[in-house]
Amino acid sequence: MATAPSSVQNPGSCGLGLTSASQDCGPASDQGSEPVAALASEPAADSPACLLRLAPHLLGRVRRGIVGNSRYAQNLREAIRSASTTDDPRPVLISGEPGLEKDNIAALIHFGSSARNQLLVRLNGALLRPDGAELFASGAGELSLLACLGGGSLLIDQLDLAPVALRPLLLQLARDGSWSDPGQPGVAFQFPGRVFFTAEKALPEFDGCCQLIRVPPLRVRRQDLGEWLRYGVRQKALSLGWSRPPQVSEELVKRLQTYDFPGNVRELSQLIERALRQCAGSHPQQLPDDVFWTERRSQLRPRFDLWRWKPQLRNWMRSPRLWNALLFGLVSWVFVLVNLWLWLGPQDRQHNGALNLFWACWWPLILLAYPLVGRLWCSFCPFMVWGEISQRLAQRLGWQPQRWPRGDSDRWAAPVLAAGFAAILVWEEVWDLVDSARLSSCLLLLITAGAVIGSLRFEKRFWCRYLCPIGGMNGLFSKLAISELRAQVGTCSGSCSSYACFKGGPAEDEGLATAGCPLGTHPAHLDDNRNCVLCLTCAQACAHRSVQVRLRPPAADLQREMAPPAGEAGLILVLAGGLSLQHWSWLLGGLPLAPVSLQEGPLLPRLAFALLALALPSALWLLLRQLPGRVQASSRPWLLLYALLPLLWAALLADHLPMGMAEAGRVLPVSLAPLGLEPGVGAWLLSSWQWSADSHVIAFCQSLAVAIGVAGSIVLLRRLLQLGLRDWLWVSALTVLLGAGTRWLVAVPF
Q: What is the pTM of this model?
């Protein structure tokens, strides 16, 4: 018997909604052949069996249109419009990076074409078998998927991941629409519908037979990000039941525009959904920046996880009993005793141990701690402790503080903080707080009052984050620290839905009940140490071990792409001004009308020269702005100030070392001297429990500190300004001269 010739049939002509169930599927000339007889016994294409076959793969609607007005968005819309309205429905190959929703673009083309009433089916190419049985093979008593689809459209997603053996069959389907059923050899069928492909890699063999649409990633159309963000927020907020979609600030858009979004539209959608869920309880009118957190580039640099190295440290450092006993059982009452000592004891530093402790011990030690533990002091700060105590007492009386204020508070708070620190420096020098116990206590109580008022006003530490002068200095120098606390974005996004580390909440698994981050910051949202006090509240609340305490290279927060608040650069100039203010007589003492001392004489001249000395670094900064080469042309000249931050830290440390090394070891003798001890016991205590460094040792330590600061600044000049070799050498030489001048300024007289 002769073999029946191959024939081309169109089972799709009896597709869903096109013909009756009794209509024949194929040319009349082939009705008597064996393959046609097998086909005729199959159920009709619009039967319930076909509907069930197609249902898992249907794309029923378009998720969104093309958002944005950039030339990339306009070109993409034009390509979609052209593919939708063409009279020649060629196959379409949509290529682009992961997360660009290329299947949605295929849906836009299909539902915008004349075939919009037909079905659109999506299959993942990576999951297809090498013979394409999911597409072409018909099982017992049923049609193949292509036969069921009829005149609809077929989308093969991730074509580049499809088996190599299957690609020739898909290429043939794309070229002329022909395909064959493995169970019916020798019979070719014709697919009347349209074929779409998506791919993340180039496939040259498909380029010639397909209309190509390349989807640009989000990072090349950053100007569209604001529209994408606002559209996504509106869309998701309404689906979550918000009565009115929240607004998105321009500051947030600008911050997110610095992020590359490797996951593109899919990552942005997930970012928006998580942000809205974090705010689901309060429904703010404007979304806070803190609820949008992305993977930071700094997390890709070398880090050493302390808790992975010593797991037992994690349980010990997370212990609430340790923190509560330290803060509320010790620090709070020591602060009360220190202030009583300052008010009731002797008023000069040589006879008041509390005054000696504050100026000779605390300042040098906190400066020494910055490169190691950053802003850790703020975790033990008595100002904050009494603010929290006041808040708890007020809540027991029925007072409810307001929720954390959202928006860009740094815009106005950072300049206010810098001005407040400048006022403290002038007050300290003109009224000689260093040798006045009651005035030093007034300074402490004034800052404590700010913390108490802030805690009564808001539920978290608004004062500590935005307005505390000491906290601002701590946050600035914490960028130099070799330690950091961060959360793993992947763990947070994949495992956490409670946000307890940020918002607080009850205990969950190994996570403890907490009130959330005291500074209102998600640990995965941190891009530097400025808003982290290492209080480990987030580590206590985290049930997924996402939070890590790590070691890193020094000054890792200082990168060219960083975006600090605008007023923080002003704080650097104020701190440098405090150094020149303390040594004003060396700098301005020879000018006419200069007072003999800033502590004695008419007030107005003293204030005038104090302010003039405080402004000297700002004047020097204006001169440095005139540097030649790339420094002058830089669009972010404030990076130069951050490059000099190690030198500023070293200068402040060198300035406080003489008092610290000469007087800090005499706290006990100074404290016991007013008690009038018996000559034998008193003499032994006064002589045995004191330590004072030689002036030559102090001078050596000052020189060493300044040398370290100069070296660190030279390295940062290269990193932040990206200077050419010639410009870098020139600016480095200027930094060395600046360091030498600083060393001369803080010199200890022998």
A: 0.71
